[in-house]
Specification:
Layout (H helix, E strand, L loop, with lengths): L1 H59 L5 H36 L21 E3 L2 E3 L10 E2 L3 E16 L15 E14 L2 E18 L4 E5 L5 E5 L4 E19 L3 E4 L3 E5 L4 E23 L2 E8 L7 E11 L2 E8 L11 E11 L1
Parallel strand pairs: 3-11
Antiparallel strand pairs: 1-2, 4-5, 4-16, 5-6, 6-9, 7-8, 9-12, 10-11, 12-13, 12-14, 14-15, 15-16
């Protein structure tokens, strides 16, 4: 129950952090929209200035009369005034939408300002209007570069002795397990391609090792950590290490690209994903749990942080999978304990879920 409580506290902690980040994301978008709004009048007035200069040149060249020039100036002035009003209204509505929904706007609701704005110059030739500097091409809005996900992983945990392999491990292959909970971001590396993504975030990991052959950890007269047989039959002998790590990976894989007139979207749902990288972090605690019976009475012993464990953890990791489910592998490059002849490095295999 205590372990479940810890997981619940960690989950609430991550949820609070994500809520704060989400708040900052949409506030940042609002600030950007307000900056765009401030530039609208400058852009439209500059465009009006260029149009008026063109009309004056035609007047000086005798192409049009004074009345025609006056009429054209009034027309372009009215057009630019309406442009200012309409463009400001679009941005004001979008800001109101974000503020009302606290940033939680569906893609359909956010398509109001999907096109890139352009500023042009209008040239009147007789009764025809030509805008040579105003782009007629509309550019679809690309998918956002960064997404975030809640991470849960679990599976089998074990340790490889120095100079040996998994067959030499003194730990139970099926009763030694790990659990991970965290948050991860993925950012596509290139502007217009999602084949390569940068993965980063943070996680809390809980690694358990169950001893075989009635063994447990203790210290000798030199305070050296040793492993020896327990005086009575053990029902359980488990060493657990709790770590806080910061993973960093490059992920590769195909992407389903959807292009419409208004948007470009990248989806990795049901797509192959391969992640390669590593991690670094700190050890938050190491503890041993023993369960046995004495004269028919059940005894539980817990000892926390009495062993000289490595305070810093680091290693290599990777995954391969389809969509939000991957097979995960992680291998520590540092040993579990320091002041010991037992030089073992943690390794784990399991399933990783991005929710």
């Amino acid at each position: 129950m205590r372990t479940i409580s810890r997981f619940a506290l960690v989950f609430l902690f991550l949820f609070a952090i994500q809520s704060a980040w989400s708040q900052e994301d949409y506030q940042q978008e609002i600030r950007q929209l307000k900056e765009q709004r401030e530039q609208i009048e400058t852009q439209e007035r500059e465009a009006l200035k260029n149009e008026v200069e063109t009309i004056n040149k035609r007047l000086e060249g005798g192409e049009i009369s004074s009345d025609e020039a006056k009429s054209q100036k009034e027309a372009v002035a009215e057009k630019r005034a309406m442009n200012i009003e309409n463009r400001k209204s679009i941005i004001d509505n979008k800001i109101a939408l974000l503020e009302r929904n606290k940033g939680a706007v569906t893609p359909e609701e956010s398509d109001t300002d999907i096109w890139e704005e352009g500023v042009g110059v209008t040239v009147n030739i007789g009764d025809e209007t030509w805008e040579p500097f105003e782009s007629k091409k509309k550019y679809p809005k690309y998918d956002r570069r960064t997404y975030s996900n809640f991470i849960i992983a679990f599976g089998l945990n074990n340790a490889i002795p120095e100079g040996g392999n998994l067959n030499d491990s003194p730990y139970s292959a099926w009763r030694s397990r790990y659990f991970e909970i965290g948050w991860a971001w993925r950012t596509r590396v290139f502007n217009h391609s999602n084949f390569m993504r940068l993965h980063y975030g943070f996680s809390f990991t809980f690694n358990g090792l169950r001893n075989n052959k009635n063994l447990y950890y203790t210290t000798d007269e030199n305070n050296m950590v040793i492993r020896e047989a327990f005086p009575v039959s053990l029902d359980k002998s488990k060493l657990r290490t709790d770590n806080f790590i910061v993973p960093l990976h490059l992920e590769f894989g195909p992407t389903r690209k959807t292009v419409t007139e208004t948007r470009v979207r990248y989806s990795i749902e049901k797509q192959l994903r391969i992640g390669l990288g590593g991690y670094g972090g700190v050890n938050m605690g190491t503890r041993q749990k023993l369960k046995y019976r004495v004269d028919g009475n059940r005894v539980k012993e817990k000892s926390a942080n009495i062993f000289d464990s490595n305070q810093f953890v680091y290693g290599l990791s990777g995954w391969i999978g389809i969509g939000c489910v991957q097979f995960n592998v992680r291998y520590d490059l540092q040993t579990i304990l320091r002041n010991t002849e037992i030089q073992e490095k943690n390794i784990l295999f399991g399933l990783r879920f991005e929710i």
